[in-house]
Design a protein that fits this description.
This protein has helices spanning about 15-20, 25-40, 45-50, 55-80, 85, 95-105, 115-130. The chain contains 7 helices and no strands. By secondary structure, it is mostly helical.
């Protein structure tokens, strides 16, 4: 297998293929989603993060959206954690919202105010959530 920094790759291989061959859950998911993972990691946003030339306000906004997203997902999963399907993979250590909240203690100094579009997007989940109760 070629290493992650190799430019020349066999057909169907990505720079993350070597990670997919290791044992564990991550390798299973990388084997199934290698193409998508590569596309995500090569996105200009991720490239800016790796190069450390991102806008701090944009990154702070990204963390806000990630915390909201994971908070909502975690609420939904927690509500169904006794379901046998969820039980098979449930682990509170995988929750991300709390860690992101910790990161925001630093990054919020660069934050910009939510846009109307952002508030409208997140408000729709509050409405959908209240319909499920």
């Amino acid at each position: 297998l070629l290493g992650p920094c190799s430019e020349a790759r066999a057909p169907g291989m990505t720079k993350y293929t070597n990670l997919a061959t290791r044992k564990g859950n991550c390798s299973f998911f990388l084997q199934k989603t290698g193409k998508e993972h590569t596309a995500t990691m090569e996105n200009p946003f991720m490239q800016a993060i790796y190069a450390k030339n991102y806008d701090r306000g944009a990154y702070a906004a990204y963390l806000v959206s990630q915390e909201r997203l994971f908070s909502e997902l975690e609420k939904l999963v927690d509500a169904k954690k006794d379901d046998p399907i969820i039980q098979a993979v449930y682990d509170e250590k995988l929750h991300r919202a709390g860690n992101i909240a910790d990161d925001r203690k630093y990054w919020d100094q660069f934050a910009v105010e939510d846009s109307k579009q952002d508030r409208k997007y997140w408000d729709q989940f509050a409405v959908e959530d209240s319909k499920q109760d």
